[in-house]
Design a protein that fits this description.
This protein is α+β, with helices and mostly antiparallel strands. It has two domains: 155 residues, 2-Layer Sandwich (Chloramphenicol Acetyltransferase); 225 residues, Nonribosomal peptide synthetase, condensation domain (Chloramphenicol Acetyltransferase, 2-Layer Sandwich), CATH 3.30.559.30. It is 39% helix and 22% strand. A six-stranded mixed sheet has the order 5-6-7-2-13-12, sandwiched between helices. A six-stranded mixed sheet has the order 8-15-14-11-9-10, sandwiched between helices. It has a three-stranded antiparallel sheet with strand order 1-4-3, with no helix packed on it. Helix 7 packs across helix 11.
């Protein structure tokens, strides 16, 4: 029929599929953020938030993020997940409007964020939600975003979330063209193409083998580097992190808290010690974890407390393409070091070692191997979700260093969310935005009842590290 769009689907990578496989009723695999905005430009005469204007605007910008109008389907028989256009897409389902009761305190907002983060996304619909919360103290409103990790990593998630935001209060682009969902291809087509893809993998390996014969020295070097990387991953993954109160089975309910620290002070502190921003973050985190465990009567001095640090391998060519372009490294935090400055020096040394160890490249290689088999992907995903190899995940996402606006409303703060694995009761995410580091702490409701104390400890350890480095200088 003339004007009928062509059939369409997009296959999930093995890494994207892993985030689907890991999820269970207690382990929610959505990332997200809590943004706080100046509400005055979007207030109606009666003082409420002009939600209808927001809905109209966001719906008009959906063409910038096509994945937001797609849902999951499965290749027949092989069951590999794919994206197809949602022919029943309804923007009113994904944009939610609520309000805090008076006085609209930050504590109330944190409690609401925790409850929203406790709810899994509906896999029968596009995997995202945006909650607009009016009545936040100080003349503000909040935007609580949830995006399934199979759709985006931290970098692309930030890019996708900022697609509707502008660098000027006057930013209000015209709505995009009318949208017509493309039909999903037939089951036979998807099955045939998936079988063809899997058959092509060994053929590609054979061609690579032929190149290896023609370029033996280059091939031996590549094999050596790959083997070293995989061995690093195996050693790190098979290791056992120490048992702590943060590493027990979690439930479905969440607490969410946050704190903000200054980015320029962070950079200056790192520069004085020959360290990176991420080193400063890990040094502050180590001090706060040390306090948290000490309060739980756990002696931190001899603990081999291990953290997993995601590392973006997203290239400029990837841009804000949906999906995950991420590797990771595992490292131990020197909790036994009491002096903040010496702790920073030690962490800078550890991270330099890890970056040259081949761990990150090994994880990339493993991701490629996972593309060979859905069964292998499922098996590795279940191992990873219950792995005793790490105590904590901490991720640092670089964001824009200029103010952003939604229909004239300035984004003041943006606190990121990292999901929890099955035996990790605390996750830490940091987003740099407009001159500040925004720390977001996602935690199991029952296991980390003192989450706010931990957030306060992050602030005090940041101040103590800055002072220690200044005194040392």
């Amino acid at each position: 029929m003339e004007g009928m769009p062509n059939a369409y689907y997009d296959r999930l990578s093995a890494l994207d599929t892993t985030f689907l496989e890991i999820e269970d009723p207690n382990t929610h695999m959505h990332i997200g953020s809590v943004g706080i905005y100046d509400a005055s430009p979007l207030c109606r005469p009666d003082g409420g938030l002009d939600f209808e204007r927001i809905e109209t605007f966001v719906e008009g910008q959906m063409h910038r993020v096509p994945r937001f109008r797609q849902k999951l389907a499965r290749v027949p028989r092989l069951e590999h997940p794919v994206w197809v256009d949602d022919d029943g897409f309804n923007i009113h389902y994904h944009l939610r409007h609520t309000a805090l009761p008076l006085p609209g305190s930050v504590r109330q907002l944190k409690r609401l964020a925790g409850r929203i983060l406790s709810q899994q996304l509906d896999r029968g619909k596009p995997l995202w939600e945006s909650w607009f919360v009016e009545g936040v103290e100080g003349g503000c409103f909040a935007l609580i975003n949830k995006i399934h990790h199979c759709m985006a990593d931290g970098i692309s998630g930030t890019d996708l979330a900022t697609a509707i935001l502008g660098q000027s209060p006057d930013h209000e682009p015209e709505p995009g063209p009318s949208w017509m969902p493309r039909p999903a291809p037939s089951h036979n087509r998807m099955l045939v193409e998936e079988v063809g893809r899997r058959v092509a993998i060994p053929l590609g390996a054979a061609r690579a083998g032929l190149r290896a014969v023609l370029e033996p020295s280059r091939t031996l070097r590549s094999i050596s580097e790959t083997a070293r990387g995989l061995s690093e991953v195996a050693i790190a993954g098979l290791g056992r992190a120490p048992a702590t109160p943060l590493n027990e089975p979690i439930g479905a309910h969440r607490r969410f808290d946050w704190i903000r620290t200054d980015l320029e002070r962070t950079k200056a502190t790192g520069k004085r010690m020959g360290a990176k921003v991420n080193d400063v973050i890990l040094a502050v985190l180590a001090g706060a974890v040390r306090e948290l465990l000490a309060q739980r009567r756990i002696e931190p001095n001899d603990l081999d407390f291990r953290v997993l640090v995601p590392v973006s391998v997203r290239s400029e060519a990837d841009g804000n393409t949906p999906g995950n372009r991420v590797s990771s490294i595992i490292m131990s935090l020197p909790l036994g070091e009491r002096d903040p400055a010496r702790r920073l020096l030690r962490i800078a040394e550890i991270t330099r070692e890890r970056k040259t160890s081949g761990q990150s490249a090994g994880v990339e290689t493993l991701s490629g191997v996972m593309e060979l088999s859905d069964t292998l992907t499922h098996w590795l995903a279940r191992i990873a979700s219950h792995s005793p190899a790490v105590n904590l995940v901490v991720t640092n996402v670089p964001g824009p260093q200029i103010p952003l606006y939604l229909l004239g409303a300035q984004l003041i703060d943006a606190y990121p969310v990292v999901p929890l694995a099955a035996n990790q009761a605390l996750g830490v995410a940091i987003l740099s935005y407009n001159g500040n580091l925004h720390w977001g702490f996602n935690a199991d409701w029952d296991r980390v009842h003192d989450l706010h104390d931990f957030a306060v400890a992050i602030g005090s350890n940041f101040d103590a590290l800055v002072k220690a480095v200044e005194d040392r200088a």
